[in-house]
Amino acid sequence: MPMIDDGFLIGEALVGEEPEIAHIDLVIGSKKEAVGTAFACSIAQPRQGHTPILGVIRPNLPTKPTTLIVPKVSIRNLADAEKMFGPAQSAVAKAIADAVEEGTIPKAEVEDLAVIVSVFIHPRGRDYQRIYRYNYAATKLALSRAIQKFPDIDKVLEEKDKSIHAMIGFKMNNLKKPPYLEVALDIPDWRRVEGIIRALPRSDAIIIEAGTPLIKRYGVEVVQKIHQLRPETVVFADLKTLDTGNLEARMAGDATADVAGFSGLAPIGTMEKFIEECKKVGALSLMDTLNVPDPVEVLRKLKVKPDIVELHRAIDVELYQNRGKEQESEWGNIGEVRRVCENEVLVAVAGGIRLKKVKKALNAGADIIVVGRAITAAKDVTGAARGFLQEMGVEDVDQFRVMTDF
Amino acid sequence: MVKLSKDLNEEESVFHKKLKIKLKEKGKEGRLILLKDYLDYLIRENRTIPPDFPTFVREIMGLDERGGFIHIRIWHENSELVDFAKIRGYEHKIDAYD
């Protein structure tokens, strides 16, 4: 039975903050019915300032199902056009393709369906980072709402008189190609942090952690500044949330965090709210097990699992030695963590990791190696980070940029 | 061959430098002009305001003037402050910290 059996479905979403705020109106349906007709008519009859364009992930790679992007605001000049043809077009296309990958749209039906996405970009919006992320998140949200036929009439009646402040973040990198090197920036001095970030090699395998002390000093907005310096890099906001899980996850999302972390010591309800909110805002959730006596037991209790579990050596060594569990490693029972999360989890290991420990950690099953002062306090930050990447077997993706980073 | 520092004393990072920047006027007025200029630069260049901006303001207002220059801590030759000094035409030089 096809996903859409009567006409078409409609979804809408508003995501982000002004002036780059993204507002998506989306229609999905069969190519053989109304959506197909509208699609063909629209592309054949462009209007001045509202030229429809195909959704492409990159030039020469259109997304599937075939998607038509229609600008809502008149494109008046080249700057407006660049925003639409660049970050917005790519974000919408990526969101549609990711929806197929995640099963929101059945893969078998992609050739039968067409999507029309109406995109709003404010003329004053200039931050490409935000335009991309907000439009990505808004497209995914609008699509899932269309398929769920959200909202039902009871929801409309319940909410119609309430004031809703809708701000949701995004997801750009799903961290699907481990291993990764997470550089923990726990130094509460922005100018020093800026220097370290500028000295880090440009590699897709690097995650930048905005450490808890850094966030406590400057606020979670520090994530945006890191993204300004390294727009392509995954940034993890190490909030170590213990309460108000959904609120803090949303704050991280609004600040453009790709990953947001909560403490495994938090109440189960807080952790579940945090994880659910991360899904909404398009960020990955990370459970920090610092001082958690039995992380596996906590994971078992969670109805929804985090995307990443970060294990800390000292506690885990004590735990597993004391309880005599099998498959122990220096950082804990990574295999058991994976089993509990049905293998849908990345495992990060943290705690005084030096170069000589990298292989051991990877062999134990770690996906992410968390390194702090061994890189950030090294005399040669670039060399230290590259040393870890080499030890991890990760090749730098762009040598030229590395060499010209100074 | 990549060598890691054996001594991880945070005070020894090679990135600790000073940006010597000449004020356009002496005294408090010069500092205010610098701060206004910096904020203007950040907004016009569409840069996110540095998270340490309040601290930076206090620091600038409190720094000693040495021959018309103030010495600002930086950790990289390409820091945003250096960009600012270059783009806005401030006489400046980068030096190792004493």
Structure notes:
- The complex is a heterodimer of chains A (406) and B (98).
- Chain A is α/β, with parallel strands linked by helices and 406 residues long.
- Chain A has helices at residues 34-44, 78-101, 128-148, 153-159, 190-199, 212-218, 222-229, 245-254, 268-281, 295-301, 313-323, 334-340, 358-363, 373-376, 381-391, 399-403; strands at residues 8-15, 22-30, 53-54, 56-58, 61-62, 66-71, 113-120, 180-185, 206-210, 234-241, 259-263, 284-288, 308-312, 346-350, 368-371.
- In chain A, helix 9 links the parallel strand 11 (259-263) and strand 12 (284-288).
- Chain A contains 16 helices and 15 strands.
- Chain A has an eight-stranded parallel beta barrel with strand order 8-9-10-11-12-13-14-15, surrounded by seven helices. In chain A, strands 1-2-7-6-3 form a five-stranded mixed β-sheet, with helices on both faces.
- Chain B has 98 residues and is of the alpha+beta class.
- Chain B is 37% helix and 17% strand.
- Chain B contains three helices and three strands, in the order E-H-H-E-H-E.
- The interface between A and B is medium-sized, with 35 and 29 residues.
Question: Could you provide a short overview of the structure?
Answer:
Chain A has 406 residues and is α/β, with parallel strands linked by helices.
E-strand count of chain A: 15
Q: How big a fraction of the residues of chain A is strand?
A: 15-25%
Considering DSSP H and I runs of 4 or more, what fraction of the residues of chain B is helical?
Answer: 25-40%
User: What structural class is derived from the secondary structure elements of chain A?
Assistant: alpha/beta
What's the total count of β strands of chain B?
Answer: 3
Q: Main sheet of chain A? A: 8 strands, parallel, barrel
Structural class of chain B: alpha+beta
Number of helices of chain A: 16
Give the SSE string of chain B.
EHHEHE
Strand adjacency order, main sheet of chain A: 8-9-10-11-12-13-14-15
Distance between the termini of chain A: 58 Å
Overall shape of chain B: it is globular
| Residue share in helix of chain A | 40-55%
CATH architecture of chain B: 2-Layer Sandwich
Poorly predicted tracts of residues of chain A: 163-171, 315-319, 397-406
Radius of gyration of chain A: 22 Å
Q: Can you identify the CATH class of the largest domain in chain A?
A: Alpha Beta
The pLDDT mean of chain B sits at: 83
